[in-house]
Design brief:
The complex is a heterodimer of chains A (336) and B (368). Chain A is mainly alpha-helical and 336 residues long. Chain A has two domains: 42-77; 89-332, MetI-like (MetI-like fold). Chain A is built from 13 helices and no strands. Chain A is flat, with a radius of gyration of 25 Å. Chain B has 368 residues and is mainly alpha-helical. Chain B folds into two domains: 17-106, no CATH class; 141-361, MetI-like (MetI-like fold, Orthogonal Bundle), CATH 1.10.3720. Chain B contains 14 helices and no strands. In chain B, helix 6 (141-172) packs antiparallel against helix 11. The longest helix of chain B has 40 residues, at 70-109.
Chain lengths: 336, 368
Amino acid sequence: MTRTVHETARATKGRDLTATETKTPESPGRLRALSSRQGAAGDKVFSGAALAAGAIILVVLVAVAVFLVVQAMPALLAPQSQIANGEGFWPYIFPLVVGTIIAAAIALLIATPISIGVALFISHYAPRRLSQILGYIIDLLAAIPSVIFGAWGISFLAPALVPGYTWLSSALGWIPIFAGPPSATGKTLLTASIVLAVMVIPIITSVCREIFLQTPKLHEEAALALGATRWEMIRMAVLPFARPGIISAVMLGLGRALGETMAVALVLSSGPLIASLLQSGNQTIAAEIALNFPEASGLSLNTLIAAGLVLFIVTLAVNLLARWVISRHKEFSGAN
Amino acid sequence: MTAIATSRRRTALTRNRLPRYAPWASLAVGLVVGAALSTLVGFNFFGWGVFSAIIYTIVYVSWSGAVEGGRKARDKFATCLVVGAFIVVVLPLFSVIWTVLEGGIKGLLTPGFLGTSMNGVSGIQDNESVNTGSRVLGGIYHAIVGTLLITLWATIISVPVGLLTSVYLVEYGQGSRLAKAITLFVDVMTGIPSIVAGLFAAALFATIFGPGTETGFVAAVALTVLMIPVVVRSSEEMLRIVPNELREAAYALGVRKWRTILKVVIPTAISGIASGVTLAIARVIGETAPILLTAGFATKINYNVFSDWMASLPTYIYFQILNPTSPSNPDPSIQRAWGAALVLIIFVMILNLVARLVARIFAPKTGR
């Protein structure tokens, strides 16, 4: 979402807004109309409307929390033997939370270094004209709907990864996360994580690039003038300046990866929690909700809504953490 | 010429430098050795590329380390990594677009694909088209109608609320506690997972109108929750960069505050606001999860958002892939899904382009 803001800001910021001054000379007659007495009521109405709109936002967010809690309550209060085939709510939700966190963590592990590399390539390595086009392409890619990434994952990526998985499990099978036998369809948690990584890379990249471009030119030139190579200049001037921004970009990607539904729902062939990433199994909260919601009713519906509440709380915690990190470094960097 | 070249090679500045052909030589070594290595494990172009890139990096960096020293070598290594990261990203992203184009064009060019719905199309027709080779029946008209109507209603609700909120934040609430709370809440809303927004709308309407209320409007409310924060953030940014001199000039002429906002501030920022709104629409038009939970599963054309189920392009793709119309012959469903995916991507791309054009064309004129 930050991306959108950056994008529009970039689109307009370059232009000199003060120039409008020359464009709006009010004729005397129009001025009299503008400042006439009848405007007094308008002032009140307009400020009232603006205030109301602001209040609506507070109400909506409170309503989200309240309705989720109200609809989730029956699942939390009912006898635990009636929930999720007698499993009870917490034993039901625990593997889902673990699966969600593992999938998001692997996705970020893949996406973060690559995104920083791409952002550096666009901001400091590519020729200027090329870098503008690349930035534009990255922004467009961030806008591709998630269901399309999911469809790509299931039809192209999963089959393409099967040979790799076979090799991994035969070479590194003694590590529990690569234990075989690998899935023959490739619809595993690792595939889902890779699809998630592909989805969050454009998001993290576009925020990182924005921040890398804000590095003070003087710092960069000072480093180069002292004889630093380009990589040393990046390590001395660009990365320290951008660190909080990178963290917030990663958190943004994490929030997206945690809440992402469609890619996982389409790609992962779900099952109980298992350690191996190469076998089908595991599940995330969002995908579990999407897959079961259409048939759910009564108490099972309440259970799914309670699962959604848990997801809401997890992403809320991540976002607040990101805000806290940014605010701690705000004065020193361009990450605000 | 040769005298100059040799003397230049000996000067202090160029003494410890790689010859100019070094990258190309390393690349050649990389390609040859990479081809050899990949033939050993079974040749394919992907393996060749990976091996060549690794060999190239090793040769180039160690050569540079031997001639130029560690610092230059590390710099070259970093360059290789950065360019490598870029290539690693470009491949899957182009693969996505290629897959959609490859699968989608056939579906899109099927006669009637854009103009018909899935009403009456069942496994029988699909089996027949696979067995006899006749054209695949069924289309996405109902899904396009649903997507446009749901997005339209979401826009109708969220743009006034979002715009007025940003006006409050910039013009009225400067520094007040309410404004701070709204800013925080908007940030929190930005992070709401889309499926939670869907659950909220479903829970809200289930509480008010009884369980099982699934219409296009419920989906629009879910999308509103996702859209409002985007609109607020982008319009706020745009209103903030309107120079204060413009407002003060209007006040000095005795213009009332609301007219100043309507006639001076918003017109100045309108290009940025419009492009922000367009980007917000582009974002929610592809949301799947909220619509999946709120609008049901329709195969018929439905123009009324307030009653009955409604289809949309993202959920259409999802259902066609996950539950093919004919479970024994999923190919027609897959073909329709890719056709719908191509249409959806075209929608999103057009919206993005429109946003950029709006920002450019309607930007305040500079000078005369």
